Amino acid sequence: MNKKVLILSLCLPLMGLLSSCDDGRIYEEQVVIPQEGLSLKMTGSISNIGDWPSGYSLVVAGFNDESAYAVVSKIVPNPSTDGGEVTVEMSGITDEVTSLEFCITDRLRRRVHTFCKTDVSAAVDNVVTMDVGAQDVGMCGVVQDEVFTPSCAACHGASAGGAAAGLYLTEGLSYDALVNQPATCNPEMLRVSPGDAGSSFLYLVLSRDGDTGHPHTDILDAKRKTVLLNLIEDWIDNGAQP
């Protein structure tokens, strides 16, 4: 008799607990918590991503107007075949971000080169869609766009007066004019010696004074000089691929 009373006394609170949960409502099995910020979906066809040495990353990244360092970024994967299509999705893009870029960053997440850019104001229903099209992201092309075209070509081939020292650094001509070619001022040195930036005349004239009659150390953008010198050095040391 005492055992029955004890069992009944234990069961009554449990029954009351179960009955209190049965309020007639239907509860979802999974609770979805909305993620703050915008989302990005990038698509494109990417070639020559393998040109880049360690320390550089091809990414989609969010930047603000005050810094060259990415606020948020996500690695762009290698396509299954060179030139193949890739898709990258990134979420949690905060209000701190003002632009979204398909770009190369260095190991410090500093912007090295931007291939495609869009403003966050392009978002529709909190999603920014970026189709970058067919992009050749090879390192040599970035060196051309970031160094030779803006800083060198004005004297080396872009003007009607020809190219200083007979050196053409315009697009389509610069590679053949530099790689494994003797320097005019010092024929014992190569302008670019693949695999060895330290003995390449191009790198030396941009990083120190005294190698030519015309100083070249101040022709690079002062705010980005370290990034650009690193880019040239790493391109040469990585074999100066075309």
Output the CATH topology of the largest domain: Immunoglobulin-like
Compute the number of strand runs.
7
Name the average pLDDT.
87
The assembly state of the depicted protein chains is single chain
Poorly predicted residue ranges: 1-34
H/E order of the elements? HEEEEEEEHHHH
- Residue share in helix: 10-25%
Shape: elongated
Strand content: 15-25%
Number of domain units: 2
Largest sheet: 4 strands, antiparallel
Cα end-to-end separation: 94 Å
Give the second-level CATH assignment, the architecture of the largest domain.
Answer: Sandwich
Radius of gyration: 29 Å
Strands of the widest sheet, in order across it, are 3-2-5-6
Number of DSSP helical runs: 5
Describe the model:
The protein is an alpha+beta fold and 242 residues long. The chain has two domains: 38-137, Immunoglobulin-like, CATH 2.60.40; 140-237. The chain has five helices and seven strands; from the N terminus they run H-E-E-E-E-E-E-E-H-H-H-H. A hairpin with a 5-residue loop joins strand 5 (99-105) and strand 6 (111-119). It is elongated, with a radius of gyration of 29 Å. It starts with a helix and ends in a 5-residue tail after the last helix.
Spell out the blueprint of helices and strands.
Layout: H1 2-21, E1 38-47, E2 57-63, E3 72-75, E4 85-93, E5 99-105, E6 111-119, E7 127-136, H2 139-152, H3 174-178, H4 201-207, H5 225-237
Parallel strand pairs: 1-7
Antiparallel strand pairs: 1-4, 2-3, 2-5, 5-6
Helix pairs in contact: 2-5
